[in-house]
Amino acid sequence: MTAVELAGITKRFPGVVANHDIHLTVRKGTVHALVGENGAGKSTLMKILYGMQKPDEGTIAIDGEQVSFSSPADAIARGIGMVHQHFMLADNLTVLENVVLGSEKLHGIGSRARRKIKEISERYGLGVRPDVLVEELGVAARQRVEILKVLYRGARTLILDEPTAVLVPQEVDALFDNLRELKAEGLSVIFISHKLGEVLSVADDITVIRRGTTVGTAVPAETTPRQLAELMVGSELPTPETAESTVTDRAVLTVEALRLSAPGGKALLDDISFTIHAGEVLGIAGVEGNGQTELVDALIGLRHADSGTIRFLDQDITALPTRKRREQGVGYIPEDRHRHGLLLEAPLWENRILGHVTEKPNSKGVWLDLKNAQQDTRRIVETYDVRTPGIDVTAASLSGGNQQKLIVGREMSHHPRFLIAAHPTRGVDVGAQAAIWDHIREARREGLAVLLISADLDELIGLSDTLRVIYDGKLVADADPATITPEALGSAMTGAASGHLEDEEIPETPAGATDSPKSAASPESLEDEAR
Ligand SMILES: Nc1ncnc2c1ncn2[C@@H]1O[C@H](COP(=O)(O)OP(=O)(O)OP(=O)(O)O)[C@@H](O)[C@H]1O
User: Ligand 1 pocket: which of 399, 404, 426, 428 to mutate (most atoms <8 Å of CB)?
Assistant: First the structure.
C-alpha cells in the first residue's frame, strides 16, 4: 500500500532548478529516508509535500488519490505532518497548550484534549506529560512534543527534517524506538538525514537525490554508508587522512574561574577553567542547555561574566567588546546561524562582510571595499563549495548546509588564532563535512586553537585533541578522544560520571534522570514520573 506518491515533481527558483522530475513512493508502515548533498533539493521537495510551496510540474497522490495543496492546512487535512529542524514550541506555555494551539476545534482545550494527549503518548511510547511547561523540557522531550503535536492533528505520514542532529546517541535510540511504534500502527515516516549510519539502521527504503533529481534507491541491508555517500555525490569519496597531533605548549586561550549567573542568581557557568594551546582542539561534550551557549557567548563577548578572566595570547580580553575580539583574531561559528551568523535577507557578499566590517579584504582604511569583498565572496563560494547561482542571491535562498559552508568559509578566511566552533558542520552533508574538517585540521596544523562544541559525538571525538564534559554549568569530566566511545561519552553527558573517564567504568544513565535540559532522559523514565 502506498501512502504518498510524488511523480514528476519540478520546482524552479531564479537561477536554480531545485527539483527536477522527482519520483518518490512511500509505502505505508515504513520509514523512508531521503538523502542527498546540501542543496540537492530535499527540503524543497518536503515543502511541496507539506503545502508550503507549489510545484511547477508534477503530481502528489495520498493514499492513491491525487491532491493539490495550497497551504500546510491542506496537507494536514490529508494526514501529512511535519516536524521542523528548528522546533516551533512556545516556551512559556504548557505541553497541552502548545499541542492544542490552533487546533482547539479537535478536542477542545481541557480534559478531552488532555485525555487525547495521554492516549497518543501511551500508544507510541512518547512519554509526554501534558501539564509541564515546555521551557522545563530538554531537546529530546521537546521533539517528542512536536511529534505528538502532529499526531494530534491526525497525521498518518510524518516528515522529520534532520531529527537526530541535536540528540545524543541514547536519545537517538529512543527516537528510533518511537518510529518503530509509529510504523507498527501503519503510519509512515519520511526521514531526512545526513547521518548515513543512522539512515541505514532505521530506514526501510532510501531515496537518493542528487542535484535536484532522484538518482536511485538503496536497500539498507545491502548498502554501506560509504556506498550511500557515493550514490549521493555521484563519484568515489576520498579516504580521510589520519590526523597527527599538533598540540604545542603555547597557551592561546586561558579561561580562569569563569562564573556567569542568570538574573535570579542561578549559576549558568560555575568555576569554568581551561587552557587551549596553539594547534589544539578542545572539545566540549554536553547535552544541550548545560552552559554551552553561555560559555560561547562569554568567549565572544556577547555576555560578560560575573567573575573570572579570559586571556587571549598575552592579553586580558575579559572586558573587550565582540568586535575588538574578532579583530584580534577570534573566529566565531555560531550555534544558531539564523540569529547570529547571517543576515538572511541580505546578499551573500554582504554576509561575507558581516562581523568583519573593519577587516581586510572588506575594508581599506576607514572605507568599505565592496569590490574586494565581493571578489573574496566568490573565492569562498568556490573554495567551500557553496552551491549557489551567484553572490547576489540572499542568504535565505541557500539551502541550510550551504549557509553553514558560507559561515565557515568566512570565519576561516580571516585566519583566526582562536576559533569558537559551535556545531560547525550541523546540517552539512558528509562530503562537505569532511572538507570542513580538513580546513579546520589544516589551520590547526598552523597553530589554530579551537573550542569545539558539537552534538555529533563522532565529530567531537574525531576532531578533538582534548575532551571535557560540561554538565549543569560545570566542567565535570575529561576523556581521551583516542579511547572513548560515543556511547560512553553520551552517558557521561547525562551526568552519570565525573573525573577522568575510562571506558569500562562508565555506568548507565541513572534511572531517575529527569527531563530538564541538564540530562537526557529516556521516555521510560518520564513515564515513571508521570505515574
Ligand atoms: N526560496 C528559495 N529561493 C531561491 N532558491 C531556493 C529557495 N529555496 C531553495 N532554493 C535553492 O534550491 C536548491 C535546493 O535547496 P534545498 O533547501 O531543497 O536543499 P536540501 O537538499 O534540503 O539541502 P540541505 O541538505 O543543505 O538542507 C538550492 O540550490 C537552494 O539554493
Answer: 399
Q: Which residues are within 8 A (CB) of 525 and not within 5 positions of it... i.e. 6 or more apart?
A: 127, 511, 512, 513, 514, 515
Residues lining ligand 1, CB < 6 A? 13, 16, 18, 36, 38-44, 387, 397-402, 427, 429
State the average pLDDT over residues 386-402.
91
Q: How far is the CA of 389 from the centre of ligand 1 (A)?
A: 11
Grid cell digits, residue 280: 589544539
pLDDT at residue 511 is higher than 80: no
> Can you tell me which atom of ligand 1 is nearest the CA of 194?
25
Structure confidence at residue 239 (pLDDT): 55
| Predicted confidence (pLDDT) at residue 243 exceeds the cutoff of 80 | no
pLDDT band at 306 (very low <50, low <70, confident <90, very high): very high
**pLDDT given for residue 524 in this prediction:** 34
Tell me the pLDDT tens digit for each residue of 39-67: 999 999 999 999 999 999 999 999 999 99
Interval between CA 398 and ligand 1 midpoint (Å) = 5
320: cell is 573587550
Query: Domains (ranges, CATH) in the chain?
Result: 2-233 (3.40.50.300), 247-329+416-531 (3.40.50.300), 336-414 (no CATH)
Q: What is the mean pLDDT of residues 268-276?
A: 95
Burial class (CB in 10 A: 0-12, 13-18, 19+), 366: exposed
pLDDT given at position 351: 87
Angle of CA points 171, 175, 179, to nearest 5° = 170
Is the separation of the CB atoms in 355 and 326 below 8 Å? Answer: yes
SS3 60: strand
